[in-house]
């Protein structure tokens, strides 16, 4: 597969590791509720291969998607990952009913890292995010020290099992604590045009040259906020998702996108958002909805 040059530009996570700002999140490749296999495995493989053909070289995943299913599909579709950066996350597992269960002891994290290694078919993981928070809504930072679990990942990095480290669903204090232990190349939190609690964190990370990777680009919108987004999208002849993604790309140069879909058509629409240049009046209108 030969990747084309992707609109939206690139970002250097660290020396020798540059990715396109438009990536792909693989969560939706699993079955309903991100649990079990997809109805059409060949279609899931095709979506991944098409993403790379469109120029995507940043794939976001986790071995608890499925569990194991998504990583196994990624391996089938893309191994040996020439020119592709696969970013995974640890800190949770799934129980027999599909519930998301926090597991962040050093022993549990080590087991999860080895699950990722085995199912992706690699000797070392490109980037591993420690997923920390959750809260009542499942994606809010929960205050508290992350030193022990992050140090456990640092130990595995020193052993050569992990190349680079990131953190997910964290607050600014937890970012600083992790950085006091080892370098962090990315922070992955819930953030979008309607929910901008991380504005200061985005700017702080940009000043340090650290990537900010928002998830839920259309999550948690009120009906009024959705109405404004839909209106802007209609005026521009685009989908609401494309406009939301374009807004994120224009928000800050350190923002990397990982929209997910199991549809080839939606994948192409999402990738096309990287080429969209939102006019100033649209940005002002969107900024106001937060």
From TrEMBL:
GO cellular component: cytoplasm
Keywords per UniProt: Oxidoreductase
GO molecular function: oxidoreductase activity
NADP-dependent oxidoreductase domain ranges (all copies): 21-289
Pfam families with a match to the protein in the record: Aldo_ket_red
The keyword Hydrolase appears for this protein: no
PANTHER family referenced in this protein's UniProt entry, alphabetically: AFLATOXIN B1 ALDEHYDE REDUCTASE, ALDO-KETO REDUCTASE YAKC [NADP(+)]
Protein's name according to its UniProt entry: Aryl-alcohol dehydrogenase-like predicted oxidoreductase
UniProt organism field: Amycolatopsis thermoflava
